[in-house]
Amino acid sequence: MNRDEIIEKINGFLVDEFEVEPEVIEPEANLKETLDLDSLDYVDLVVEIESNFGFKVNPEDFVGINTFQDFYEYVIQKAEAV
């Protein structure tokens, strides 16, 4: 899976699971604010990542993730290591 395919897959499950409009998902947008994430939503997000990309997510990995671009880079890096 290449970079664009990973980003497309991420955006697809974000739209489906978090019921946001695709046009609000911009690389520079704040992930938490745009998706209106609470602690339970983070659990859902972790489950989606693990089931879609086949790697284990550590909660501390989210500390440095602020924007969608940060999130994409994290998933791409982890997915390439699998």
- Helix content range: 55-70%
Mean pLDDT: 95
Number of helices: 4
- Give the biggest beta sheet: none
CATH architecture: Orthogonal Bundle
Uncertain segments are none
N- and C-termini, Cα separation: 11 Å
Count of discrete domains: 1
What proportion strand? under 5%
Q: What class do helices, strands and sheet pairing give? A: mainly alpha
CATH superfamily: ACP-like
Element order: H for helix, E for strand: HHHH
CATH topology, anyone? Answer: Non-ribosomal Peptide Synthetase Peptidyl Carrier Protein, Chain A
- Overall strand count: 0
Specify Rg, calculated over alpha carbons: 12 Å
Protein name: Acyl carrier protein
Organism: Fulvivirga marina
Pathway: Lipid metabolism; fatty acid biosynthesis
Domain Carrier: 1-79
Write the layout of secondary structure elements.
Elements: H1 3-18, H2 31-35, H3 39-53, H4 68-81
Helix pairs in contact: 1-3
Give a quick summary of the entry.
Its main location: cytoplasm. This protein has 82 residues and is mostly helical. It has helices at 3-18, 31-35, 39-53, 68-81.
Q: In words, what does this structure look like?
A:
By secondary structure, this protein is mainly α. The protein has one domain: ACP-like (Non-ribosomal Peptide Synthetase Peptidyl Carrier Protein, Chain A, Orthogonal Bundle), CATH 1.10.1200. It is built from four helices and no strands. The protein has helices at 3-18, 31-35, 39-53, 68-81. The longest helix is centred in the N-terminal third of the chain and has 16 residues, at 3-18. Residues 1-79 form the Carrier domain. The modification O-(pantetheine 4'-phosphoryl)serine is found at residue 39. Pathway: Lipid metabolism; fatty acid biosynthesis. GO terms for molecular function: acyl binding; acyl carrier activity. It is found in: Cytoplasm.
